[in-house]
Design brief:
Elements lengths: L6 E13 L4 E13 L3 E5 L6 H9 L6 E10 L2 E2 L5 H7 L4 E4 L3 H4 L6 H11 L27 H14 L5 H4 L9 H13 L5 E5 L7 H18 L2 E6 L2 H7 L2 E6 L2 E7 H6 L4 H8 L40 H5 L4 E3 L8 E3 L4
Parallel strand pairs: 3-8, 3-9, 6-7, 7-8
Antiparallel strand pairs: 1-2, 1-4, 4-5, 9-10, 10-12, 11-12
Helix pairs in contact: 4-5, 4-7, 7-8
Bound molecules: adenosine-5'-triphosphate (ATP) and magnesium ion.
Adenosine-5'-triphosphate binds next to strand 2 and helix 1.
Amino acid sequence: MMIPKTPVLEVQDLRVSFFTPARELQAVRGVSFALGAGETLGIVGESGSGKTVTALSVLGLLADTGKITGGELRFHGRDLARASQKTLREIRGKKIAMIFQDPASSLNPLMSIGKQVGEMFIAHPETLDPLDREPDSRYGGRRLLRRGPSGKEIDRRVTALLSGVQIPDGGKRRHFYPHELSGGMRQRVMIAMALACKPEILIADEPTTALDLTIQSQIIRLLKDAGAETGMSTIFITHDLGLVAELCSRAMVMYAGMILEEAAVDDLFDAPSHPYTLGLFNSTPGMETGAARELRPIPGSHPDMIRPPPGCPFSPRCASAAPQCFAAPPPRRAIGGPESGHFARCWLL
Ligand SMILES: Nc1ncnc2c1ncn2[C@@H]1O[C@H](COP(=O)(O)OP(=O)(O)OP(=O)(O)O)[C@@H](O)[C@H]1O
Ligand SMILES: [Mg+2]
């Protein structure tokens, strides 16, 4: 059964736009999904389809010009779309953590990596198990429980966390600055920061795009293990269908700010239904469908979200588009019965 039984996050008809005085760019246009406890949900789609904006909305990290114009983001009964910055700050990093798409700009170049990872513990000391605290003689041990963690304790935890993400010799490496580490090592630091407070939800936004294949698979294994160990739920954003197959139990195909198809990964790969999903498969080496099994890039390009097409957003590029596809957005329809958890938005299905 693909509909998660106990959702930790429920997104309902999310709408996000970026505004300038002259125009509105509609980045997310009615996205709904539920993330189950312990589940890894993939979001796949072309550049500009709204994957990152969806993720940033959950964390309340949209740019100043960005605004949630509709919908709900339910987390433990709370609507994050309407939460105060104070509430969001408490949740961010501690309950919902994110590995950002661009690790180079997310790490502070002027601060050692140990200090940056350690800041997570300083920001959320309550996530540390007090019994596990190292007594500090200056404060008679016990009083320390009400204070923040000691410097020594943070160092110990940072070293443990770095070794957990396979940064060898973390005791020494924690003094390194980001530029002294390779791209793969920097990405591990980002993961360590994201995992520091044992979040309930991890959002990983293209966490391996800039890395070579060997490092990529090490990072994927790391994320897999972290999820299995803590029961954390993960939203995994990627262009890469192969990674979706490897890591996710369910996936959503996003295009022009909408979810065009959604299914358990096995169903999606066995029976991709939306012409856009088929296009994605047929333009990915090794994933081609149909008898010819030839690689066919999708013609045309992603629409400009200032003036999105009025009908199905994919209609201008769709070889099967019929007149109604250009007229109105398609309804969400169940594929293989309502219990299948497989949905697509296409007039032709
Ligand atoms: N800060 C911003 N100001 C204005 N427009 C933005 C901003 N951030 C994103 N957008 C626009 O919102 C739309 C969705 O962008 P988003 O970054 O979510 O795409 P994406 O699916 O993550 O793409 P990629 O695969 O390239 O990361 C795009 O049209 C993008 O140009
Ligand atoms: Mg993105």
